[in-house]
């Protein structure tokens, strides 16, 4: 099982390495393979618990859907909202920190949701209470202080995708 984990981690590391270098020269391929083997060997038990999940095509489809929805819908709407606030200084803002409950289970899902919230303009996760399953989010324009309603506005969509990909 450790070899399967190491292989999966090495494969993912290699793909990320090649994508971020943007090059497929012999040097980059060899360097990528060496780096991937080292990372796979050192981090297999830390990074991955169930290597079979990585090869589940449905999870990859949901991941692509998550990325497309995030980048082309959620990000665009948030950027337009913040730009409108910048260009209209008289527009009222109501900043504050709200409690946002979450239902995802795995550390990867929690991280994906928190990163999606933080990378979306107008919201930043400032703390996560894993015992209470609550994220504390600074919101540029607090529309509600009720946790369940705040979840609907801030994280519900991210959680729906993250559950399908990571849990």
- The level of helicity is 55-70%
Side by side, the strands of the main sheet go 1-3-2
Shape category: globular
Low-confidence stretches: none
Task: Specify the biggest β-sheet.
Answer: 3 strands, antiparallel
Backbone CA Rg: 19 Å
Kindly, what is the distance between the CA atoms of the first and last residues, rounded to a whole number of angstroms? 20 Å
**Number of helices in the DSSP assignment:** 6
> Could you say which structural class the secondary elements and strand pairing correspond to?
mainly alpha
Mean pLDDT: 91
Q: Beta-strand level of the residues, as a percent range?
A: 5-15%
Q: List the domain count as a whole number.
A: 2
Pattern of helices and strands: HHHEHEEHH
Total number of strands: 3
Question: Could you characterize what this model shows?
Answer:
The protein is mainly alpha-helical. It folds into two domains: 2-54, no CATH class; 56-166, no CATH class. 63% of the residues lie in helices and 11% in strands. The protein has helices spanning 2-21, 26-47, 57-87, 107-119, 147-154, 156-166, and strands at residues 96-101, 123-129, 134-139. Strand 2 (123-129) and strand 3 (134-139) form a beta hairpin. Helix 1 crosses helix 2 and helix 4 (107-119) packs antiparallel against helix 6 (156-166). The longest helix is centred in the middle third of the chain and has 31 residues, at 57-87. The two termini are 20 Å apart. 23% of the residues are buried. The model has no long low-confidence stretch (mean pLDDT 91).
